[in-house]
Every structure is written in C-alpha cells, then in structure tokens.
Design brief:
The protein contains 4 helices and 19 strands. By secondary structure, the chain is mainly β. Strands 14-13-17-18-19-16-15 form a 7-stranded antiparallel β-sheet. The radius of gyration is 26 Å and the shape is elongated.
Length: about 260
C-alpha cells in the first residue's frame, strides 16, 4: 500500500460545478449552522501499483470526530505509469456544526493513504460569518433577557432566562435566592448564551461564554449600580443594592465566537 499515493484530493460544491464547470473547493451549508450540507462531490487522483483496491472516504470535524463515511467501493489502478482519477457524488445530508476546517481522509484496503483539508462555506450563517458577537451586542442593547444553558452535576444542562448588565460584549448576571435562581452558574467554567432579537422575536444565535465570579467589592458595587437601571420591576428600589451585596453572587460572562 505504501506504493499508492494520492496526488490530488478535494471536496467541492456540486451545484456550482454543474453550473460553471469550475470545482469550488468547499462543502456548502445553506442557512444557519449547525445545518445539513448541500450536495457535493469528491475526487481523488491516485498513482500506484496496478491492481484492485477497496476505497473508503471519510470526513472528520475540526475536533477529529468522523461525521460521515462513504460506502466501500472497488477501484482499479492501472500501474505506476498512470494517474487514475475517481469521482463520487454525495447527496447525503452531512450535519455540519462549525465553519472551521474539516478533514477528508482517503483509505485503500483499510489503510490511510492521505488526509486533505475540507473548507466549509456557510454564507447565510450569522455565526459562521464571524459577526455573531457584533449582532448579539446590538440585540442585547435593545433587550432585557437572555437565555443561559448551565451545566449541572447530573449531566443534564439547565436552561433559564436571566436579566443582565451589559458592558460591550461582556455581560454580568446577578444570582441569588431573592433575585434569580441560576443553579450551578458560579461552579461552571462555561455556559451557553442564547440571544433573541426583540425586534423580530427570533433567535440571533447561541454561543459559549466563559464564567468568572466577581469577588472584588468595588467591581461588584460598580456593576450592581448599573443594574439598578436595567432590572425591571425592582420591588425594593434603591435598597436592592444592599440586598444584592448581602445575598447575591455576581457572575461575569464573556461570550466568544464558536
């Protein structure tokens, strides 16, 4: 098998190839991520010893997890003097969760011949376009509630609404028995934030956020004072500031693009 080489391998969008004759080296996803792939094609150019080989091709996500694998097929190489091209048309729906680089792996008779990069194009995805943080920041300025998905000790994440204080793309949440119950928040290293547009009543997107408990008293007072102006239906008015200091935990959430 060491005498067989993959000279060229690629995944490309089938629609653009059929319309233009040019292989656009991407797997395309329409709509928001995660989403299903549009039909695509694969090609592989081999050079190696004459004979019959069983070929399998697989796609792995950025974390190395295999998300799709072809059915085996038999191909025939003509010998060391030739370069043999083989194509596949893939109409399976491959679930794509990230626009980061994926990997296409070629196997002959169960042995890995080569790995090549696969590029993901999701032009309609706010998340994939790299503007989710900016879009979310704008939506958060207009809204008052976000949704937090918080890991729990039993392995079942908990989803809860929460009011917040916003400073740019950084958010602060107060949790406490007389304020808002957000179990496990201060113990989590990371949570998921889901943001909805107040204007169109639709989800902007979800993203992970790092968790930090605010322990500095001056920072607590500064952020809590800002919260006096954003907390709706504040039953104890200005006295809430002291209540928060006595009974609440202040948590900073720093979103990041997924």
């Amino acid at each position: 098998m060491s005498r067989v080489k993959l000279l060229s391998g690629m995944a490309y969008d089938l629609e653009s190839y059929e319309s233009s004759g040019v292989a656009d080296p991407v797997i395309r996803v329409k709509g928001e991520l995660p989403g299903g792939s549009q039909p695509f094609a694969l090609h592989g150019v081999y050079k190696g010893s004459q004979g019959m080989y069983e070929e399998v091709v697989a796609i792995a996500d950025p974390d190395g997890e295999v998300i799709w694998e072809s059915q085996p097929r038999v191909i025939e190489l003509r010998g060391e003097m030739f370069e043999d091209l083989f194509r596949r048309t893939i109409r399976d729906r491959v679930e794509i969760t990230s626009n980061r680089e994926h990997t296409l792996a070629y196997y002959l008779d169960g042995a890995l011949v080569a790995r090549v990069p696969v590029f993901i194009d999701a032009p309609e995805s706010v998340q994939a376009s790299g503007v989710l943080l900016e879009a979310s920041e704008t939506a958060l300025k207009k809204g008052s509630i976000l949704w937090l998905t918080i890991p729990q000790a039993d392995g079942q994440p908990l989803s809860r609404p929460a009011w917040y204080v916003q400073q740019g793309q950084t958010l602060f949440v107060l949790k406490g028995p007389e304020e808002q119950e957000l179990p496990g928040l201060e113990q989590a290293r990371e949570v998921t934030i889901t943001i909805k547009s107040k204007d169109v009543k639709a989800t902007i997107g979800s993203m992970p956020a790092a968790v930090r408990v605010v322990t500095d008293e001056a920072e607590f007072e500064r952020v809590a004072a800002m919260g006096m102006g954003t907390r709706l239906n504040l039953r104890d008015g200005e006295a809430a500031l002291q209540r928060w200091k006595d009974t609440c935990t202040l948590v900073e959430l720093t979103p990041r693009a997924s």
